[in-house]
Every structure is written in structure tokens, then in C-alpha cells.
């Protein structure tokens, strides 16, 4: 063997065996040496090293390295030093990496605008909360004109009834009111002008059938704030219309309004109209529209259930995509790719079982959350399933029982979530995190039962290895199919009992 060849092999051997460290999280921002994290006492750090046989320590603590080079650990943070010190050693050679970290920069303070209150404002949709930092409470429609009487940290307060109010962020507000002045006495000692908005009076309603929906039509006169909730025992939909006066003494029913049995009304407080829409079977979906001045609640007719998923229209949402990678595993597997790979396998399986399947994306493209929901609604989906793989927020110890969880928001989706969770646990054999009620965008739609699955934690080395395995997409797809069949079978039994 020539001296030149020996020299080349020696160089290649050094190149292969020189340790390298790739930290996935926390990761510095572009054009920065510093990563930003929450102010926590301890935090996780994960990534991979090469060669996989190298030894790794972080801040002087030895870290376990998986066979594929992946690692994760949970270490105390030194907020004086503000750095992770990583060292990888292999055959006497070493690599060192000092990763700087700092707390997220504080948000810029919001300057209070020069507002005169009370005043009238127009809403651009969005969400109204119980408090500026509180829970979602209702979802106004664009073009709704309302009265506001306070402003706090970028949020406007909207009175509803009595002492009941909600708050909406300024980005959802069009403020063109220049007539109102500060409540109290002005500088010229003139009485304050309080803006008025006439409360609509509701006199009648009608219930009209269509092919897939039953419409409850209430002539309100203009858009108002409203809130809709579901009750399961007995099944009914409750509608609250705020700042409305009821003289509602006439309802006209068209023939065959199944599943709507009856609509009754109540006015428990001044300017609060409540409608109780009684159903003959559990709610399968509903939606709200405005037709000029009519408020319309459309109740979905449940689909005909055949064998398994046959004939059902199912939308599958592979979460993330494009520049939105979602969570990332220690060796660089992106959530967007894992979600899409499973979605394509699931689509083929469901179509083989004679379901009609729509994907919110079929390649590596980005779609906004509302766009994904619109895809499902435009397809008139009977069920919407959003596929995801999980990660943890800063400060949470990853060395706990982390596994599979299923999320829902609307009561109409809870039974579906329970059935899917049972089959996911049975087939994936990961710890059972249970079913979560959670206010996530892809489980808020009302037009059909919708759930979101967090099948595994892609940030954990052993979970990432499972997700990358050849059999994983088929196993996950089969679990979802079996979960759907379980739910539909239980639903058919319930219908027979009724």
C-alpha cells in the first residue's frame, strides 16, 4: 500500500472520529450567539453528537448518549454564568461548545392611547377573554359594533350584562368613534356624552331544514355579541345573545327538523336572550352565520353510519409545514415531516376502507390555522383529526412519564377523543397521558367533531427513534383507524337505544 494512500486513510480516520456536537434546543437565534429561554431554575438541553460512541458532559455532568448519538438532559441553570458548557470526548480527541443563554427580552410596554371613554368600537373578529390575561370566552364576528367602557394593557372592556364583561385585544378593534368624551365633567364643565347603541328587539324566529343542516333563524337587526355552548345530558345547544331585548313569542317550524326537537327562549337578565335548542341525539356539529341582519345557527344532521368509516368524509390535518417546522427531535427529525408521513399513510388506509379523505396539506407547504379549518369546512368533513408530535415548555423535567395524549375542546368531540386515546395507547404502547380539554385552534371548530393527537414526544431520543422507524406511521395510522371504528360503533349503539 502506497504512502499516499496510507496518509489519505489516516486523514479520513481523523475526520470521521473527531467529535462534533449539534445542539437542537436551546438554539441561538440567527445572527446571534445567545439562545433565549424562560427564567427557570433548571432546564433541558438536547441534540446529538458524533461519533455516537463519544462521551458527553454538560456543565461537568456526564450525559447518557443513545446508540444513534442522541442525548437529552435536565440541568440546573447558573444565571450568573449564563452558559451551557458541553464537552464531547472520543479516543483522546475532544470538542467543546459553550452555548450562551439568557432570559427572553421583556415585551415592550404598551402605551395607553389617548382614548375618551365610554365609546363605540367596531370589531374585526378575534376572541374576547374573561380578563386581559384570562380564558377565551366568546368569538365576535367581524363588523360587530359594541360599547367599550375601559382600556387595560392593550385590551378593551366590553360590557355584556350586569357586572359581566369581556376583554378584547386592540388588534381586533377598529376605533372610529370621535364623538364620545371622558365620563364625568369635562374641562368646560359640560356633562359627558355617553355613546348609545340601540338594543335590538327580537320578535320571532323560524326553524328551516336543508340537506345537511337545520337552520334556526333569528332576525336580530344587526350583529351583536353572542356565546354558544353545548350540553350533553340532555343534548342541546345553548345560545346567549347579549344586549338584545326579547319579545320572542313566535317560532315557525318547517317539516322534518331532525335532529332539532324544539327551540325555547328565556331572558334571565335585562338585555340577555337565551335560546335552548333541544336535540334528539348528541350534537354532531353546528355553525353560526349572519345573513344581513339575521342571526343563523345551523345544526348539523348527523351522518349515516355504515360499516366502519365507509362513506364518511374525514379531514386529516398534518400539523405545521413549510417554514414552520414544529418541534424538532435530537437528531433533527422535524415534526412537520413526521406528521405528513403519517397523514399520507392514514389517508391511504381510510380510503381503502371506503372513506372520503381530505388533507389540509399533502406536501411541505405552510397553511395558517384558519386556512386548515376552512379546508375541513369546505370539504363538509364529518370528522377532523389534527396530527402532532409533542415537546415540553422550558423548566419541565423530561424524565417523567411522557407519552400519548388526545385533545378536544367541544363536548361533541369528547367521546371521539376517548375512543382514539384507547386505541393509541393499545397500539403505540407509550404512557397514557389521557384526554385533555384544551383551547387549541384546531379543536375549536364547531361544524364537526374535531380532535388533536399528540402521539409522542419527538424531543425525547427514544420517542424520536420510534417515530423514525419504518413501522411507526403504519402503527399510528392503524391506531387512529381503529379508534374511529370504536367511536362509530359506540355511536351506533347509542342511536339504537334512543
Describe the overall structure.
By secondary structure, the protein is of the alpha+beta class. The protein folds into four domains: 18-103, Immunoglobulin-like, CATH 2.60.40.10; 119-174, SH3 Domains (SH3 type barrels); 201-300, Sandwich (Immunoglobulin-like), CATH 2.60.40; 313-497, Aminopeptidase (3-Layer(aba) Sandwich), CATH 3.40.630.40. It has six helices and 33 strands. The chain has helices at 3-17, 335-352, 369-378, 414-428, 461-468, 472-497, and strands at 20-25, 34-37, 42-50, 55-58, 61-63, 70-76, 83-90, 93-103, 119-124, 128-129, 136-138, 142-148, 150-152, 155-161, 164-169, 173-174, 201-202, 205-209, 213-219, 226-232, 235-242, 245-246, 251-253, 260-269, 272-279, 286-291, 294-300, 313-318, 356-359, 383-390, 404-408, 432-437, 450-457. The strands form eight sheets. The protein has a six-stranded mixed beta sheet with strand order 29-28-30-33-31-32, sandwiched between helices. A five-stranded mixed beta sheet has the order 2-8-7-4-5, with no helix packed on it. A five-stranded antiparallel beta sheet has the order 11-10-15-14-13, with no helix packed on it. The longest helix has 26 residues, at 472-497. The termini are far apart.
CATH class of the largest domain: Alpha Beta
* Tally of separate domains: 4
What is the overall number of helices? 6
The rounded distance between the terminal residues' Cα atoms is 86 Å
Strand ordering within the main sheet: 29-28-30-33-31-32
> Biggest β-sheet: count, sense, barrel?
6 strands, mixed
Question: Beta-strand level of the residues, as a percent range?
Answer: 35-45%
Note the overall shape: flat
Amino acid at each position: 500500500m502506497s504512502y499516499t494512500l496510507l496518509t489519505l486513510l489516516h486523514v479520513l480516520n481523523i475526520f470521521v472520529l473527531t467529535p462534533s456536537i449539534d445542539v437542537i434546543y436551546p438554539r441561538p437565534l440567527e445572527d446571534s450567539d445567545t439562545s433565549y429561554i424562560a427564567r427557570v431554575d433548571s432546564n433541558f438541553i438536547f441534540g446529538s453528537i458524533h461519533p455516537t460512541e463519544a462521551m458527553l458532559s454538560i456543565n461537568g455532568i456526564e450525559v447518557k448518549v443513545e446508540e444513534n448519538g442522541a442525548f437529552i438532559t435536565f440541568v440546573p441553570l447558573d444565571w450568573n454564568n449564563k452558559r451551557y458548557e458541553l464537552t464531547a470526548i472520543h479516543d483522546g480527541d475532544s470538542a467543546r461548545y459553550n452555548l450562551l443563554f439568557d432570559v427572553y427580552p421583556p415585551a415592550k410596554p404598551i402605551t395607553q392611547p389617548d382614548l375618551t371613554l365610554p365609546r363605540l368600537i367596531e370589531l374585526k373578529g378575534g376572541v374576547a377573554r374573561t380578563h386581559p390575561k384570562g380564558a377565551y370566552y366568546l368569538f365576535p364576528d367581524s363588523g360587530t359594533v359594541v360599547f367599550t367602557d375601559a382600556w387595560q394593557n392593550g385590551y378593551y372592556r366590553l360590557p355584556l350584562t350586569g357586572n359581566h364583561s369581556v376583554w378584547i385585544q386592540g388588534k381586533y378593534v377598529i376605533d372610529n368613534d370621535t364623538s364620545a368624551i371622558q365620563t364625568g365633567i369635562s374641562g368646560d364643565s359640560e356633562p359627558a356624552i355617553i355613546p348609545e347603541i340601540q338594543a335590538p328587539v327580537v320578535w320571532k324566529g323560524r326553524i328551516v331544514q336543508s340537506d345537511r343542516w337545520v337552520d334556526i333563524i333569528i332576525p336580530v337587526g344587526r350583529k351583536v355579541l353572542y356565546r354558544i355552548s353545548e350540553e350533553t345530558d340532555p343534548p342541546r345547544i345553548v345560545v346567549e345573545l347579549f344586549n338584545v331585548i326579547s319579545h320572542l313569542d313566535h317560532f315557525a317550524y318547517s317539516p322534518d327538523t331532525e335532529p332539532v326537537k324544539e327551540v325555547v327562549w328565556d331572558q334571565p337578565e335585562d338585555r340577555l336572550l337565551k335560546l335552548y335548542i333541544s336535540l334528539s341525539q348528541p350534537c354532531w356539529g353546528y355553525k353560526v352565520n349572519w345573513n344581513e341582519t339575521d342571526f343563523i345557527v345551523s345544526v348539523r344532521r348527523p351522518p349515516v353510519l355504515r360499516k366502519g368509516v365507509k362513506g364518511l368524509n374525514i379531514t386529516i390535518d398534518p400539523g405545521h409545514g413549510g417554514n414552520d417546522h414544529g418541534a424538532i427531535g435530537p437528531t433533527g427529525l422535524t415534526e412537520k415531516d413526521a406528521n405528513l408521513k403519517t397523514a399520507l399513510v392514514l389517508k391511504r388506509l381510510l380510503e381503502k376502507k371506503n372513506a372520503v379523505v381530505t388533507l389540509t396539506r399533502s406536501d411541505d407547504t405552510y397553511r395558517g390555522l384558519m386556512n386548515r379549518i376552512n379546508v375541513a369546512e369546505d370539504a363538509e368533513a364529518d370528522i377532523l383529526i389534527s396530527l402532532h408530535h409533542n415537546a415540553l415548555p422550558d423548566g419541565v423535567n423530561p424524565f417523567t412519564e411522557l407519552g400519548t395524549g388526545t385533545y378536544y375542546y367541544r363536548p361533541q368531540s369528547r367521546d371521539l377523543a376517548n375512543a382514539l386515546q384507547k386505541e393509541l395507547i393499545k397500539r403505540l404502547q407509550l404512557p397514557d397521558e389521557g384526554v385533555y380539554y384544551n383551547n387549541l385552534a384546531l379543536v375549536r371548530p364547531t361544524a364537526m367533531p374535531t380532535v388533536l393527537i399528540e402521539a409522542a414526544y419527538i424531543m425525547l431520543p427514544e420517542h424520536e427513534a420510534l417515530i423514525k422507524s419504518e413501522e411507526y406511521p403504519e402503527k399510528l395510522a392503524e391506531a387512529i383507524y381503529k379508534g374511529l371504528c370504536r367511536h362509530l360503533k359506540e355511536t351506533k349503539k347509542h342511536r339504537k337505544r334512543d
